[in-house]
Design goal:
By secondary structure, the protein is an alpha+beta fold. The chain is 32% helix and 27% strand.
Length: 684
């Protein structure tokens, strides 16, 4: 019997999912995250899930891991001391950066500009110059760069980034500096921009290469530690939703900055497809934050930028927006405004919400849900017992500060505000991008997502609301059911009048070959690979470009391919900005992405039942909803059958999450195991 293991490490919980590849049967474990060393929580969870499945670590063939090691290194400022090599005259590239300041009109006054990841005193200039046409203008002075690298060694740098002007055209000088660095800085990892990001724009290329070096030592240590302890083939989820082998991920860790959220989107796509939906909004609410994304025709939107805190790098990632709203988000009433606020501060895993009984005293969203009666007496399969009295005491402080008549009213206010915060994030990926959320289903997961999903469905008008099986560990499911992926890119600036279909097709094929070789080396045969192409286009004279997909079959040398690309760009430009220009189209960059086969995991089909879910009824409870106390049925999700209809108000419990069905709504159990929540009128 062969198993696949999915692992997802979040800010509060570590989720483990073990899948029997033959039957599709899955086993779940949820344990508290261990921020000081994530591998501790991971190995604890693996031990628990193996015990649940009556198996051992030896029976697991592959481990797929979504990790926040790189993300946390950026957010916590605990990365390596990075040295940077630039072309002479470009030493302050990170300090000049881009002319963008977040916030309102006075943002430039009050915004504390973050320190660059590579300090100016650790930045040296190489005497060299390659022109934009690839011609060598100034040869590399090797003796000079040796002396400067020795100076960086004396400064104690732990990683080196090399980013020379125009190296995206010819990376020969960067390669030579990397070779010299291997001699002068033995053991220090080197990030070369022409390999990390061989694309136009020196700032974006430099900051991405520096970020790669900043997180590389920490990521490499963690992955080496995991491979040593597991003694298994370990794969890491990339930010774009694909898998990379652990050695490949360690060499290019900037590609895994959004590893965790990408796993959730992959899992949501898989679960929604089983229920027959391909256009969806994903809503992943955990203990610390909420991640949302948009999926169209079963394909997540992939962005060309990855944002983590104040850092923005140029790296492909699922277009996920994050808001500081989770089960652990702390509610507070500022003395100045006397208006209730929720988040972004979080109680995290330690001490956690007051309900966890670990010493937390501040009111959180989880405490509000406990007060309202939406949560059972324990979480994570009994690992965490909830202290209702502690939750009431914490939320009572909010009621007193706002002069509310009851603790329940304060708790309802906390839930309403956090729902509005998450609604704002969903609008960013839908309305702001030109999409109507009413045209999509809403897939809710994460430990806290199903509790708030019905309310978010009402706010967005996105129906049905889909609660997948095992929603609390869906990110781990996404990790276990995704495929190997790699991409190759090149900047190639040409007006369409200067370009032919045949010329562009040749570039596509060259890039596809480079990416396919990597995926093949990691175990995916050529005949099992899928290739997709993307180009960045702009109107000639514009300072920005838009990515559009390309179909290689259209490039037959007759001009049909370029014509189709121009039309696709115009349509996307009009959707985003509501206008078109008459300027000529201009190609900027070309990319080819190669994916291996998605692993075969048999889908579970529930036994058929009637509409009556009485066999799954556990008990009844009192919940506070709509400003009043009311009775609600509590169901055991593991006993629900296909076709059962759970009418609200109701609470559906399972090991890793709890689903709330509001009055006036009903959840129908799909044969795939998902709960489909709709307004009762729509059900009828």
């Amino acid at each position: 019997m062969s198993y696949r293991l999915g692992v997802d490490v979040g800010g509060t919980f570590t989720d483990i999912l073990l899948i029997d590849e033959d039957s599709g049967r899955s086993f779940r474990a949820k344990t508290s995250s261990t921020p000081h060393d994530q591998s501790v929580g991971v190995l604890t969870g693996i031990g628990k899930v193996c015990a649940a499945a009556s198996t051992s670590l030896e029976s697991i063939g592959q481990v797929m891991h979504g990790t926040t090691v790189a993300t946390n290194a950026i957010l916590e400022g605990k990365g390596a001391k990075v040295g940077l090599v630039t072309t002479a005259g470009f030493r302050q590239v990170l300090q000049i950066a881009r002319s963008f300041v977040p916030g309102g009109l006075a943002g430039w006054i009050i915004w504390p500009k973050p320190e660059p990841l590579a300090a100016l005193e650790h930045t040296v200039e190489a005497i060299e110059r390659i022109g934009a046409d690839g011609e060598i203008v100034t040869p590399l002075d090797e003796d000079d760069i040796r002396v400067k690298l020795r100076g960086l060694r004396a400064d104690g740098i732990q990683a080196l980034a090399v980013s020379l002007i125009n190296s995206y055209v010819d990376g020969a000088h960067e390669a030579r500096i990397a070779a010299i660095a291997a001699e002068e800085l033995p053991g220090v990892p080197v990030s070369v921009s022409s390999k990390v990001l061989p694309e136009l724009r020196e700032y974006e290329r430099t900051i991405t290469s520096v970020a790669n070096g900043y997180v590389q030592p920490q990521v490499a240590r963690y992955l080496d530690n995991m491979m040593r302890k597991l003694d298994k083939r370990l794969y890491i989820l990339r930010s774009d939703g694909g898998l990379a082998s652990a050695p490949a991920a360690a060499a290019n860790p900037v590609s895994m900055l959004l590893s965790g959220p990408a796993g959730g989107v992959s899992g949501a796509v898989w679960a929604a497809a089983q229920a027959g939906y391909t256009d969806l909004l994903t809503f992943d609410m955990g203990g610390t934050s909420t991640d949302v994304a948009l999926v169209q025709a079963g394909v997540p939107r992939i962005g060309r930028e990855t944002r983590v805190g104040d850092l923005t790098v140029r790296s492909s990632s699922v277009d996920v927006r994050t808001v500081g709203a989770g089960g652990g988000s702390i509610a507070h009433v500022p003395a100045l405004t006397r208006a209730l606020r929720v988040g972004p501060q979080s109680a995290g895993a330690d001490p956690g919400p007051a309900a966890y009984g670990k010493g937390g005293r501040e009111p959180t969203v989880t405490d509000a849900n406990v007060v309202l009666g939406y949560l059972p007496g324990e979480l994570a399969g009994g690992e965490i017992s909830l202290d209702r009295d502690a939750s009431r005491t914490a939320v009572a402080g909010i009621a007193e500060a706002m002069g509310l008549p009851s603790v329940e009213a304060a708790a309802a206010g906390i839930v309403d505000i956090v729902n509005e915060n998450m609604f704002g994030a969903l609008r960013l990926v839908s309305v702001q991008q030109g999409y109507d959320p009413r045209d999509f289903a809403l897939v809710a997961f994460g430990g806290a997502g199903p509790l708030h999903a019905n309310a978010l469905g009402r706010l967005t008008g996105a129906w049905p609301v889909i609660i997948p099986p095992s929603p609390g560990v869906l990110c781990a499911y996404g990790d276990a059911t995704t495929s190997l992926r790699d991409e190759a890119a090149r900047t190639y600036i040409r007006r369409f009048s200067e370009l032919t279909d045949g010329e562009l097709r040749a570039i596509f094929e060259e890039l596809a070959e480079a990416a396919a070789s990597t995926v093949e080396a990691e175990g995916a045969a050529r005949d099992e690979q899928t290739v997709t192409y993307q180009v960045d286009i702009r109107y000639h004279g514009q300072g920005f470009e838009i990515s559009v997909p390309a179909g290689i079959a259209a490039f037959d040398g007759e001009g049909g391919g370029l014509k189709a690309l121009g039309a696709a760009f115009d349509a996307e430009h009009e959707r985003l900005f509501s206008f078109l220009l008459k300027n000529e189209h201009e190609l900027v960059s070309v990319r080819a992405a190669v994916s291996g086969p998605r692993p075969h995991v048999a889908a579970v089909t529930l036994a058929q039942g009637t509409e009556d879910p009485a066999a799954a009824l556990r008990t009844t409870t009192t919940v506070y909803v709509g400003g009043e106390q009311t009775r609600a049925n509590v169901y055991d999700r593991g006993k629900l059958l296909a076709g059962n209809v759970v009418a609200g108000p109701a609470v559906v419990t399972e090991m890793d999450s709890t689903t709330l069905v509001l009055p006036g709504h009903a959840a129908t159990v799909h044969p795939s195991g998902s709960l489909l929540i709709r307004p009762v009128a729509e059900e009828a």
